[in-house]
């Protein structure tokens, strides 16, 4: 007997296929984008009604993948379907609803994880029966059978399996699993540094949360106070990127169960001192949180709240062609510091320079004095956490533009210049190492003087490193070009991404 959960999840997948076919049909008729259809769908048709009553809520992952996948590859799918139809007797013209079933089935056969092709084909034949009472289900069977036969066969017998999809990085996972839940306008499509919440006053609340984990964000040997400082620093940096003034924060702490009482006491004491050092940057301090013992490494989360005058938050979406691109402070120090802390000092590197860079790795300096002063002056802003190129690419994708930066214009500290003199191979860390917690923003040239004045008032240096250009062609191409003396640099990665195979680069 099958466990009931499996039956449940099979039904959720059936519901997802049905919903996907309807959405694909709607996309074709209305010309709307997949994301819009999906958002409307989740808002308006939940819970199920009418013909769908017998089905549980759809498997959101499958639904999202089918809708987005079909939209991204409609032409390819249609051409494969039409080739098969042309080989059959009679007209190749088919109704849009039938075509929607075939597109979804063809996409699932080609691109989605290991459900046997036989099962997939059956599911779409059933959908054919749900909508039609004559020969259409047989046509679905024939077309999908032919498509399946063209797929690589992994084992003899009746089970056809598709290739494993590539590993999803953090952003793809967020997009597929969490974005469909974030339908509130203030969620900003889960694509900005923080979320906005209108609370019926002249201000909007700005909310952000960041987790830091031992050996992922900080080193096991890092002083406990620096971990407290880093936790608040990375959250404050997101508020600064939104142009928000910090109000208060919540704190969640998971301490390893294996630690002795003495170790736990000593570490939490140091951690709290680090929090106390950074906390004055908030108008109020700690509001609440949670403390647990866990069979895992240290894992710390803060949720920071800030405020902006309503409608004035800095967003990632507004960059325009011709904007100048600016960064605050110096770039690359923390990534160099991390490398020196883990790999030791290359011959010739002075310990004082190394200590400066390691301190920059341990203690982010969130640009909370600058962010709010940029309100009204810049078109787009983000903080640099994953890497200069990766975070600029986030702005570009959100804004539908490209960027060209001049590597020689990137501001470097004396300590970084000193290290690079002895270890020039570490140069790429500047562009893609991350952990900078500086601001990157784009603005029209006409605002330059006002931005310079804001930077002076904030006591933070800023540098212009490039220009915004028109949208990429093709749209999925990397949006950021890094130039050195007129030549485009080849980069192995653009920055840090959790779950990605190249995250250590
Ligand atoms: N588990 C989650 N649930 C909801 N939203 C998430 C989740 N993880 C990340 N996000 C959102 O996805 C976006 C990208 O995440 P991230 O790169 O961590 O943001 P940031 O670099 O600004 O801290 C942000 O808008 C963030 O709020
Ligand atoms: C021990 C250690 N290894 C590697 C890194 C590099 N690193 C880890 S996470 C990260 C990116 C920023 O962290 P993330 O969780 O993505 O924060 P967010 O972008 O969400 O603010 C970088 C550059 C580090 N900081 N510490
Ligand atoms: Mg990140």
TL;DR of this structure?
The protein has 16 helices and 12 strands. It has 505 residues and is an alpha+beta fold.
Give me the secondary-structure topology.
Elements: H1 4-30, H2 34-44, H3 60-72, H4 74-86, H5 96-111, H6 117-131, H7 136-149, H8 170-178, E1 195-198, E2 203-213, H9 224-241, E3 245-256, H10 261-278, E4 286-294, E5 299-309, E6 324-328, H11 333-343, H12 351-362, E7 380-383, H13 388-399, E8 402-406, H14 414-422, H15 428-432, E9 439-443, H16 448-458, E10 462-469, E11 480-484, E12 487-488
Parallel strand pairs: 3-4, 8-11
Antiparallel strand pairs: 1-2, 2-5, 3-5, 6-9, 6-10, 7-9, 8-10, 11-12
Helix pairs in contact: 1-2, 1-3, 1-5, 3-5, 4-5, 4-7, 5-6, 5-7, 6-7, 9-10, 11-12, 12-14
The structure holds adenosine-5'-diphosphate, thiamine diphosphate and magnesium ion.
CATH topology of the largest domain: Phosphoribosyl-aminoimidazole Synthetase, Chain A, domain 2
Strands of the biggest beta sheet: in what spatial order? 7-9-6-10-8-11-12
Fourth CATH level, the homologous superfamily of the largest domain: PurM-like C-terminal domain
Strand content: 15-25%
Principal-axis shape: globular
Q: How far apart are the first and last residues' alpha carbons, in Å?
A: 48 Å
CATH architecture of the largest domain: Alpha-Beta Complex
Uncertain segments are 1-6, 46-52, 153-163
Mean pLDDT score = 90
Binned, the helix content reads: 40-55%
Question: Quick one: biggest sheet?
Answer: 7 strands, mixed
The beta-strand count equals 12
Task: Please tally the helical runs, counting DSSP H or I stretches of 4 or more residues.
Answer: 16
What small ligands are held by the chains? adenosine-5'-diphosphate, thiamine diphosphate, magnesium ion
Give the oligomeric state: single chain
CATH top level of the largest domain? Alpha Beta
Binding site for Mg(2+) 5: 386
Binding site for substrate: 217, 435, 496
Binding site for Mg(2+) 4: 193, 208, 238
InterPro entries: NusB-like_sf, NusB_fam, NusB_RsmB_TIM44, PurM-like_C_dom, PurM-like_C_sf, PurM-like_N, PurM-like_N_sf, ThiL-like
């Amino acid at each position: 007997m099958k466990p009931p959960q499996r039956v449940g999840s099979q039904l959720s997948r059936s519901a997802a296929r049905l919903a996907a076919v309807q959405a694909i049909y709607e996309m074709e008729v209305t010309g709307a984008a997949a994301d819009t259809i999906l958002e409307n769908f989740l808002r308006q048709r939940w819970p199920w009604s009418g013909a769908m009553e017998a089905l549980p809520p759809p498997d959101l992952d499958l639904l999202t993948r089918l809708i987005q996948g079909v939209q991204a590859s409609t032409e390819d799918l249609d051409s494969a379907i039409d080739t098969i139809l042309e080989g059959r007797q009679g007209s190749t013209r088919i109704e849009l609803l039938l075509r929607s079933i075939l597109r979804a089935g063809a996409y699932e056969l080609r691109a989605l994880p290991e459900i046997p092709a036989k099962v997939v084909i059956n599911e779409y034949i059933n959908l054919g029966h749900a909508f039609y009472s004559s020969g259409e289900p047989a046509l679905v069977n024939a077309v999908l059978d032919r498509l399946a036969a063209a797929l690589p066969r992994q084992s003899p017998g009746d089970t056809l399996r598709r290739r494993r999809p590539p590993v999803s990085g953090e952003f793809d996972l967020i997009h597929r699993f969490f974005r469909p839940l974030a339908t509130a306008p203030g969620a900003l499509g889960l694509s900005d540094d923080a979320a906005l919440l209108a609370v019926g006053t002249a201000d909007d609340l700005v909310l952000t949360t960041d987790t830091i984990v031992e050996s992922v964000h900080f080193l096991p040997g890092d002083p406990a106070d620096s971990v407290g400082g880093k936790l608040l620093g990375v959250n404050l940096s997101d508020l600064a990127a939104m142009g928000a003034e910090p109000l208060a924060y919540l704190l969640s702490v998971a301490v390893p169960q294996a630690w002795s009482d003495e170790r736990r006491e000593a570490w939490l004491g140091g951690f709290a001192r680090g929090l106390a050092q950074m906390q004055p940057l908030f108008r109020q301090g700690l509001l609440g949180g949670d403390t647990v013992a866990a069979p895992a490494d240290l894992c710390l989360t803060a949720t920071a709240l800030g405020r902006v005058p309503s409608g004035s938050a800095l967003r990632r979406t507004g960059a325009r062609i011709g904007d100048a691109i600016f960064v605050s402070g110096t770039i690359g120090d923390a990534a160099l510091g991390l490398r020196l802390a883990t790999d030791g000092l290359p011959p010739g590197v002075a310990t004082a320079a190394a200590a400066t860079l390691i301190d920059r790795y341990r203690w982010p300096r969130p640009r909370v004095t600058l962010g709010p002063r940029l309100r009204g002056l810049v078109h787009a802003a983000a903080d640099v956490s994953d890497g200069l190129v990766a975070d600029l690419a986030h702005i570009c994708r959100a804004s539908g533009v490209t960027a060209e930066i001049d590597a020689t214009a990137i501001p470097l500290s004396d300590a970084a210049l000193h290290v690079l003199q002895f270890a020039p191979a570490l140069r790429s860390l500047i562009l893609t190492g991350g952990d900078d917690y500086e601001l990157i923003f784009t603005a029209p040239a006409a605002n330059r003087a006002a931005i310079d004045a804001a930077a002076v008032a904030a006591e933070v240096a800023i540098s212009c490193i490039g220009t915004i250009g028109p949208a990429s062609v093709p749209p999925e191409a990397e949006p950021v070009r890094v130039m050195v003396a007129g030549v485009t640099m080849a980069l192995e990665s653009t920055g840090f991404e959790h779950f990605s195979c190249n995250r250590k680069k």
